[in-house]
Amino acid sequence: MEASSHDEFREFVQMRSTALLRLAVLLTGGDRYAAEDLLQIALMKAYGRWGRIEQHEAYIRQVMYRQQVNRWRLQRHRAETTVPVLPEEATGAGAGADAELRIALWAALGRLTKRQRAVVVLRYFEDLPEAEVAALLGCPVGTVRSTAHRSLAKLRLLVPELGPEGPKERIQSLSYTPKEVQR
Amino acid sequence: MTTERVEEKVRQTLHAVALDRVRAPGDLAEKVVRRRSRRRFSQAAGTAVAVAAISVGAVFGFGDTGTARHERPVRPAASPATPPEGWKPWQSSSPDADERGCVVDGAALYCSGSKYDAAKIDANTGKRLWGVEVNREGDGNDHPFAVRDGVVYAYRNHTAENLPNGDYSGGTDLMAVNAGTGKVLWTVKMPQDDRTDQAAMLIDGAVLANTPSVRTMSALDPLTGKEKWHQTWAKGIVCQRAVLSAVPYLLCTPDVESPGYTEILRLDPVTGSTTKVATLPGGQQLVGTSGDRIVLIAAAGGDRKDMRLTTVSGSGEHASHPYRVDGPLATFDVVGERLITVSRQGKASAHSLTTGETLWTRPVGVKVPTVDTMPGIATPVASAKQGVVYFFSPNGDLSGLDLHTGEQVWRTHVDTGKPRPGFGGSPQLLLYDDVLVARNGSKMVSLLPRIGD
To answer: N or C: which end of chain B has fewer CB within 10 A?
Structure first.
């Protein structure tokens, strides 16, 4: 790597690493050490081709997401590690039932698979549409949709306060039912 | 609850996580460059690499998987351990004061935890004697790194304030604390959040600290924190730091992926003036110090499996021995004139720094976490009096191997619980005379290993 690229890399890391580490913390369910490991891996990959990458941050984010999915692929035979999280990390300024629900939800997010968590973070933290999530993860849109659906279903199981699917789902479901059955 | 509402709750939860506590380490770029360099060696050796480069050399595969070669005949079990006066076995009674780690001095442990940046704990009883409360928060792997002349040296956050954009600004201060009272004597702002053993160290008559810029080392008065002298190196150069007999040395290389040389400079601890003592080929990585020698490792030749371990004296005399990369390590340390390593396969080895020979390779006797598990085993500690090197795994296993033969002479298991979130670093093992203090997360256990029982 040329000296100028090297300086650029260092400058980038200095400027953006905290923001990227925060994203990694979400992806790893709150495990700070796994998060730094994930970020280091992404930065290592970027470092090797720094001069050829146009959008450094976008590239590194993509590597982090894909790495997370790849880890899931490699480790899916293993039990997921549950990372306990301090309750106050998810409480924010809120209090009462809402805060309790967020604590339970944050704990439940830690019990999703890495792939499910990656999809959830992309969809609900980054607020990316399904197509962009699919492009980032390198999988079909349908896979993103089904993974998100299964993630929410698992969260419902893990957090009973979320309750079963509400009336809107039932109505939608009925709307797809053949007319003769509706009758 | 409808899908939309669940999605909204998930969204709120993710955005409510206190991410402003999360800060990237100041030396991240350096870690990445070094880790990448090491990974290339390990990949050449056909090993899987996924270990975070928390410390220099952490993924080097040293060792010799051959049979143990005993320099000395097997001797009887080591001398029986004797407890310090007033000590009784204890378990952690100082939550929030020790999760970040400790250092032993006299009959005290000086620790850092989630609520205290520095805390004194009675090594005989485990009771907390005083504590310096954290500046907003206390997380990370840093802890007091030295105690001398009644002063404890540690780190803390520079500020508890937020930046205008709402992010927590943090920053790091080097802090000196009266060991008797817990009163903060002085603080000096560091240029980055590096709190590793490279950030500051004790030298003759001063504290040598990486401040006020990342390319400057300053000698600070130990009682006032005032600068006595400083040395700065040029842009494009990185310098590791080592101390031999209270004299500081800089190990400087071009800041590139494959540096061609490493210069070793001795600094006068009184004036800071430099003397070049040696120039070694390649990018040498500091492994540790052994008596009056600096221990370094570097790639040797085109075959990236081959490495060289080099020792350099304070006057620049150096000797090198070949090493063969054999996969990533769980931990390592320089113990006397030996380099003790533990492979991820659970083999402990001792190498002579003098002859380069592998003295023995034996099962370490504790469960070694897999390469995908971030916390490794504790850095080994050795009791010269007992002639035993001890190992500690995060699952609570403890093992003692004879320093001379590698034979297991003691083992036990302690319940250290699960570490608190945010404190998932490697466990720590400390020696207080013959007593072991095993810390995992916030829990500490102090016990006397009964060798030969």
So the answer is: C
Window 108-137 of A, Cβ < 8 Å to B: 109, 120-121, 123-125, 127
Measure the CA–CA gap between A169 and B227, rounded to whole angstroms. 69
In terms of CA atoms, which chain B residue is nearest residue A103?
B13
Please judge whether B52 and A83 are an interchain contact, meaning their C-beta atoms are less than 8 angstroms apart: no
Of B101, B189, B94, the residue nearest B427 (C-alpha):
B101
Per CB-CB distance under 8 Å, the chain A contacts of B36 are: 44, 47-48
ipTM of the complex model: 0.72
Among all residues of chain A, which has the CA nearest to that of B191? A14
Contact A167, B22 (CB under 8 A): no
Residues of chain B positioned with their CB less than 8 A from the CB of A129: none
A53 Cβ contact partners less than 8 Å away, ≥ 6 residues apart: A46, A59
| Interchain contact, B3 vs A3, CB within 8 Å | no
Per-residue pLDDT of chain B in tens (453 residues, 90 and over written 9): 788 888 888 888 888 776 766 788 877 887 787 777 655 433 333 222 222 222 223 333 222 222 233 223 233 444 567 889 899 999 985 668 888 899 999 999 999 988 999 999 999 999 999 999 998 877 666 899 999 999 999 999 888 887 676 666 668 899 999 999 999 999 999 988 788 889 999 999 999 999 999 899 999 999 999 999 999 999 889 899 999 989 999 999 998 878 899 999 999 999 999 999 999 998 998 999 998 899 999 887 666 567 889 999 999 999 999 887 677 778 888 998 899 999 888 999 999 998 888 999 999 999 988 755 556 799 999 998 889 999 999 889 999 999 999 999 999 999 877 655 444 467 899 999 999 999 988 889 999 998 765
Q: What residue in A sits closest to B39 (Cα-Cα)?
A: A44
* Closest-CA residue to A138 (of A71, A92, A69): A69
| Bridge partner residues of B216 (DSSP) | B232
In contact, B197 and B148? CB cutoff 8 Å: no
Instruction: List the structure tokens of B308.
Output: 């060289």
